[in-house]
Amino acid sequence: MAEQFFSTGSLCIRCGKREGLADINYSGFDVIKKGYYKFPQRIKAPAIPGGINNYLCVNCVNTFKVECRVHGIIKDDKFYLGRPPRCYKCEEQLKIINKGILPNGFWSLVPTAQIVKRSGDIIKSVYIAFSDDGEIHVVSKNVLFSGRHISQDLKIGLIEKIPCVFFNPKNDSEIQSCYVNLGNIDNLKEGYGYWLNLWKPELKKKLKLNKSSQSIILASLELKKITDKKFGQIIKKSSVSILTFDDGELKLYPDFDLPPLKNLTWRLASDNKILILAIKHEGVPHTITISELFNSCGFKSIRDLSKELSELLKTSEQDLFSLDLKGIFEANLFPEGKKQKFLFELDSKSKTIIATSIPKGEPITFNLCFNYKQKALLISSDRKQFLTCTFYDKDIEVIKSNLSIPNDLFDSGSYRFGAFLDKKISGKVRMLRVYQDGFTIDDREPIKFSKLKKIEITSLSNETNELHIKYTDEHTSSNSIRLIGHVSYSYSALKELEVNKAKSVASNSSLPELYRQYNHVKKQNLLIGLFSDIILLSQELNIEISMDELEEKLEKSSIEKFYNDKKLFQQTTKKLLLFSLFLPKIKQNFEYLSSLYPYYQVKNEADIISDAFGSGVATEYIPYERKKIRLTSRKNIRNVQSNIQRIFSAIEGAVYPIEQLFAKEETQKDLFSKITKYFSQAGQATLIGILVATGAATGGIGILAGLLGIRSLGDVLNSLQTNRESAARVKKASKTAFSWWRVLKDNLPVTIYEAGEEIDDKNTRCMQRDKRIFDQFPSHKKQQIEDNLKESLKNRIHAGTINRFTEVLEKSGIKFRTLTSYIETAIEIDMPNKVGNVLETLHLPQDDDTSEDKNG
Predict the structure, then answer these.
(1) How is 368-412 classified by DSSP, letter by letter?
(2) β partners of residue 397
(3) Rg (alpha carbons) of the chain, rounded to whole number
(4) Which residue in 425, 457, 614, 825 has the most C-beta neighbors within 10 A?
(5) Which residues contact 119 (CB under 8 A, 6 or more apart)?
(6) Orientation of helix 665-679 relative to helix 700-711, angle to 10°
(7) DSSP result, 735-746
(8) Can you list the residues of the chain whose pLDDT is less than 70?
């Protein structure tokens, strides 16, 4: 076209009008090029006649009609000032699209993430609009592309693992590609219409569908699977997934490894926006949680599927199992002894674990458990099956908080039994069965109590003990087994063994043998009364840090280092505090013991004589016995008391100068309030030092109560105001006090041994007394008297053995047997180690080796 602003004298080729100076020449006018139409493909432009040397006036050009394929012939505008008629309706549509609103004449609109131009430029804030005339338009302020699309232009793919729908026009458009990010839910919510339907053929390929009519859901996915070797779940997630159900299968894009949807249960949640599937695949529980993200523009909601789910999933909605407190563990099941994998399911309400072998097996319910380190033993509710497994520390605590601890052996009518861990063979369960006349280990031959040599119990931790059983088999060869059990459980087994052994041995013993057993019980009673305080104090002094280790640290520490080491100062001060508070208490207990214990012994001897020989004989002998027993028993106690008193005085003298550190009223109040609350637990037994009712000496009750209080002090000792001078006093006092305590400990076995000898002499005298009484009776009465005497001795031996398993103080966890073990070790091991050569040279009698025993 030739646009001429000055007249050339040319005439209009249509009407002959001469061209003026200001006229625009429309000859050969290009409507599309000059129109800058928003949707140029819609415009049907007339062919304007003329050439470069011709002239066509504005009036004549307006006789040509420009038509919009969508809106028809443009009537509300005309050729003017060198431009063709504008389609205001198309312009209005573009304006509305740029506002994110679906205009009339369009059926769908979706905001895209971005477009990539062939030039490499990237443009954001773009819309894809689908018009009613079947065209697709890419809009960013202006229309960047308009035209028909073919299926090859519409693709589905992933960008950073997020599914996206792509439009990649194959023509010469300046657009290389544009896509909709299906993970940008806020963006999707701004769209209109069912644009997803255009990509359904591509979805069918991606999802590998047999049919194309399935409802498509946009959702997040979470797969939970029970983990191995611990309680918990492996969680795998897909933040955005396209999914549908097809022939009973869950089809997904992108691919997601799921177990087969067989034998499942399901439930809808969160107002039908979440679908939860629960599956046990090969015995392992899984859950699949499908959470709806977007349910418009062609994506269906889970609510839409709710009526079809029963048919799609081949099962109705029902309650689901939980994956909480579940785990898969490799364990040994006994008595089978087979190692296999189990699914453990904890039930905190019933305090049980249900273990099911994988992949298929019958569930077994366990309700009792104890552990040693990371190895746990579970006991079934029917007490017929046992399982051992290794757990992490955290899982051990989970199990212990959900299961009970076995506190006693189990009763099976003719015997009592319990399952224990083998100390030597990790993970091995040992079955201990205790009968009236013997015991068995697993399914071995029964072992008579006469073959049982010794049982030692050792603490392995605050919760477990080792039970070391020594015996001889039918070939008289020595054997032993080491069993691990919970503290109370192992003590129950020890009690069952020792009480039944004592009862069995006594039932087959002669009268002299019964006397020897009974004398041993009496001897232990008095030795407990004499030394329990010191034994308990000694044990307490070694808690947290042993006395030997503490002395070594103090020896290497200067005053300056000791002053700055708060922990060392606290440990040292606590030991000295134990001396300061409880040495006077021990001395008081000795006074009670020397005053009252002889009368307990008088009563006990009176009962023996009365049971065997009759109350008349007892009345005749008791006045003399009272004087004799009172003098010998009190002398024995006083001898021990005087030996220990000298050392106590030296320790008290060393501790006295530092007691002013505790002199402040507030410190004393805080200190003693934490201690004295325990004293009330001891009750009146503390006042007399013994429990006459049970025949068990309990001198240690009072001091034990206070020791428990010392343990509760915590940081009270840190509140003491110290300086270098007071630190030096504490260090000096500890050196003297600790060295004297070591002297007491070194000499204690000798003191115990000598006290035991004196008790043996007294017991021998009592045996001789009973023999003299027995010989005075006529022959026809002797059998009955012997039977009475045996029965009386058996009952006392039995009661004494049972009393060994009574706690010194309720809930303290310390039993009298702990004290008797210490005393027996002092007599049988420590004393011979110290003065063994002298004993051999002098040929002194050993424990309870009396002439009465030898002579019968």
Answers:
(1) EEEEETTEEEEEETTSS-EEEEE--HHHHHHHHHHSBPP-SPEE-
(2) none
(3) 49
(4) 457
(5) 174
(6) 130
(7) HHHHHHHHHHHH
(8) 1-9, 113, 151, 171-172, 212-213, 314, 316-321, 474-476, 659-723, 808-813, 834-856
Q: Among residues 19, 96, 6, which one has the least CA distance to residue 50?
A: 19
Judged on CB neighbours under 10 Å (0-12, 13-18, 19+), 295 is middle
pLDDT in tens, 727-785: 888 889 889 999 999 999 888 888 888 888 888 888 898 899 889 988 999 988 889 98
Q: Which residues contact 51 (CB under 8 A, 6 or more apart)?
A: 27, 28
Tally of CA atoms within 13 A in the half-sphere of 236 that contains its CB: 13
Token couple for 133: 């005339």
Q: Where are the alpha helices (DSSP H) in 40-81?
A: 58-61
Residue 797 is encoded by which pair of tokens? 């031996």
Using DSSP's 3-state secondary structure scheme, residue 355 falls into strand
Provide the pLDDT for residue 44. Answer: 94
Classify residue 483 as left (phi > 0), alpha (psi -120 to 50) or beta.
beta
First-last CA distance in the chain: 149
Cβ contact 731:562 at 8 Å: yes
- 624, with CB counted inside 10 A (0-12, 13-18, 19+), is exposed
Q: Render pLDDT for 129-150 as a digit per residue (tens, 0 to 9).
A: 999 988 888 888 888 788 877 7
Q: Which residues contact 95 (CB under 8 A, 6 or more apart)?
A: none
Say if residues 378 and 393 touch (Cβ distance below 8 Å). Answer: no
Q: Is 290 exposed, middle or buried (0-12, 13-18, 19+ CB in 10 A)?
A: buried
